[in-house]
Amino acid sequence: MASILEIKGLEKRYASGHVALHGVDLSIEEGEILALLGPNGAGKTTLISIVCGLVMPSAGQVSVGGFDIRREYRRARALIGLVPQEIALEPFETVWNVVRFSRGLFGKGRDDAHLEDVLRSLSLWDKRDAQVRELSGGMKRRVLIAKALAHEPRILFLDEPTAGVDVELRRSMWEVVEGLRARGVTIILTTHYIEEAEEIADRIAVIAKGEILLVEDKARLMDRMGQKELRIELHEPITALPARFAEKGLELIDEGRAILFRYDTRGPRTGIASLLTDLAAEGIVLRDIATRQSSLEEIFVGLVTEEQT
Ligand SMILES: Nc1ncnc2c1ncn2[C@@H]1O[C@H](COP(=O)(O)OP(=O)(O)OP(=O)(O)O)[C@@H](O)[C@H]1O
């Protein structure tokens, strides 16, 4: 599939001397959802701002749909929709005018059918004549998305779409993103909520201290780096694990009612079979066993900590 965004050797040194981006390379395929995951201050907003032409890069190249963001700024920018972190909307303007003006700003001709389609897809059609100030926080966020889609961009940036919103609103934003994906919009979202990346992204890029630590297909990442946990419920609680088990990295949890065993899915042997035999030999009777894949959160924390040590 063709790439819609190409970033090569991107550097940003702010006037303060702070290096916010350090040799970033990234290629985004048309139609995918990429989550740019990183802790506070990692450089996510700086990266988006450069692609959108709001911040000047110190070095490197960025092209959107084949257009260089500096030499062919207008053509590149026309392909991008940006949903900023902060809600900045004119309170007395109607929803309809917000999207109509935004389309006009990009020099696009009037297309009421497209705007209706965008508003309907974001469940805002009934609110088209309402003023922005009358809307709930969740609706205002959706208006920001509608505004960003008004000029028919091919790529949409969502900068921390759910920062500071409650769990319910976060879920409804995820549904909106899912709907946009179904319409073929390429989406790059920044987040420091791992749960968010895990839920909606096709690929995950991890950024820390201005460097991309990895970019990988979500499922493959979880598979490659994933550890599994085996939780063994005991029939009777025990006070301590026999010494030979401590060496295997077993942990006694839930006040002696369960044992936790972490194993690597990539190894030639998991060690589960011998563990179960050994437990039986010690007279430990099992009640139930369950396995769990480690979450992206554990993978992420592992990566960022590895980088810092
Ligand atoms: N205008 C600026 N001048 C100097 N330093 C800046 C400027 N803007 C950002 N920075 C610094 O660059 C680094 C990256 O900031 P950026 O906002 O890109 O990070 P982020 O990953 O988006 O963080 P957050 O998740 O907190 O939004 C930070 O250390 C920040 O303090």
From TrEMBL:
Molecular function terms from GO: ATP binding
PROSITE patterns reported in the protein's UniProt record: ABC_TRANSPORTER_1, ABC_TRANSPORTER_2
UniProt keyword terms in alphabetical order: ATP-binding, Nucleotide-binding, Transport
InterPro entries with a match to the protein in the record: AAA+_ATPase, ABC_transporter-like_ATP-bd, ABC_transporter-like_CS, ABC_transporter_ATP-binding, P-loop_NTPase
PANTHER family reported for this sequence: ABC TRANSPORTER ATP-BINDING PROTEIN
Domain ABC transporter: 5-234
Name listed for the protein in its UniProt record: ABC transporter ATP-binding protein
